[in-house]
């Protein structure tokens, strides 16, 4: 009930932060018309395809209502990274995303105590809705990066299934705990400073901590957005690649460093406001059907 109350009270704050993780339906990519009656649940189709489509690489639609053509697979192990939870088969993405992960992992490997990165979920081989978990990660432009500093990069498949990341939060996410380090902040700053990145989701206390510690140029803080969870990993969302005509970007975050908005999140965690008795309950939404995805996704399924 407390969590629900906080969520209701933060609706206005969410709107100002631009932190909506999901995203409205894509506008640029055409929603299907020829298969308007196709009521098959999209996750039951995309969630069982084990390989990428034989097409030119392209993100299609939005982060939470889309798919990806011609995905490439992040190698399970590299010089400065390891893909985790291989049984999920979610280490697929657009080429720009794989390049970003490799670039960020090389920087992470320069940080004391870090051999690189443990990389969590990216996307399914053809993107689209997942059988479990994320509402986003559909167009090959989202990456979850574990907060756990890797001290070895020779984990076998069993270890990757059973090793867990570690939480960085204290007081339900209002503050960071003793596991949070300057290296975490340096890696997040590096990621947020990359022009390919649209936004990064972390728990509110981490954003406030970075706001307090940032020196000099603070422009990169704009891309660090508070969101529920995200204390075992941080979520990087890339912009649509240049020339990706069927890809829909999320609206950019509001101007400024966003630190005041993050503090509102923290204040409401520490002292939850009373629930709004006039709030209209959200209507439950069913799973996406194929007819609700961009029309190009049918070609992705069939090629």
Helix content: 25-40%
Query: Could you give the order of strands across the largest sheet?
Result: 8-13-11-12
**Radius of gyration (Å):** 19 Å
Number of domains: 1
SSE ordering: HHHEEEEEEHEEHEEHEHEEHH
Structure, described:
The chain is an alpha+beta fold and 303 residues long. It has a single domain, classed as Muramoyl-pentapeptide Carboxypeptidase, domain 2. The protein contains nine helices and 13 strands. The protein has helices spanning 2-9, 11-17, 42-46, 95-108, 157-162, 182-193, 204-213, 259-270, 296-302, and strands at residues 58-62, 65-69, 72-73, 77-78, 81-83, 92-93, 117-119, 142-146, 169-170, 175-176, 197-202, 224-226, 233-238. The strands form five sheets. Strands 8-13-11-12 form a four-stranded mixed sheet, covered by helices on one side. A hairpin with a 2-residue loop joins strand 4 (77-78) and strand 5 (81-83). Helix 7 crosses helix 8. It is globular, with a radius of gyration of 19 Å. The model is unreliable at 1-19 (pLDDT under 50).
């Amino acid at each position: 009930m407390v969590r629900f109350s906080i969520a209701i009270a933060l609706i206005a704050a969410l709107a100002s932060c631009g932190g909506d993780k999901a995203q409205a339906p894509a506008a640029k990519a055409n929603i299907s018309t020829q298969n308007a009656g196709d009521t098959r649940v999209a996750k039951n189709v995309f969630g069982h395809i084990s390989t990428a489509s034989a097409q030119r690489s392209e993100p299609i639609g939005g982060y939470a209502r889309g798919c990806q053509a011609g995905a490439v697979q992040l190698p399970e192990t590299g010089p400065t990274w390891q893909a985790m939870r291989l049984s999920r088969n979610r280490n697929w993405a657009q080429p720009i995303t794989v390049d970003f992960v490799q670039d960020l992992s090389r920087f992470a490997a320069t940080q004391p105590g870090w051999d690189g990165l443990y990389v969590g979920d990216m996307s399914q081989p053809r993107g689209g809705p997942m059988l479990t978990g994320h509402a986003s990660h559909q167009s090959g432009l989202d990456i979850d990066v574990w907060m756990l500093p890797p001290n070895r990069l020779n984990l076998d498949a069993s270890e990757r299934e059973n090793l867990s990341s570690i939480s960085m939060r204290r007081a339900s996410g209002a503050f960071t705990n003793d596991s949070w380090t300057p290296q975490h902040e340096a890696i997040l700053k590096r990621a947020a400073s990359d022009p390919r990145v649209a936004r990064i989701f972390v728990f509110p206390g981490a954003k406030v901590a970075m706001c307090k510690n940032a020196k000099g140029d603070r422009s990169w803080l704009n891309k660090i957005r508070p969101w529920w969870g995200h204390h075992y990993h941080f979520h990087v969302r890339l912009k649509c690649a240049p020339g990706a005509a069927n890809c829909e970007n999320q609206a950019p975050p509001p101007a400024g460093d966003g630190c005041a908005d993050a503090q509102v999140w923290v204040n409401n965690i520490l002292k939850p406001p009373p629930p709004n008795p006039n709030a209209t309950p959200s209507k439950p939404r069913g799973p996406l059907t194929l007819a609700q995805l961009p029309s190009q996704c049918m070609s992705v399924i069939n090629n």
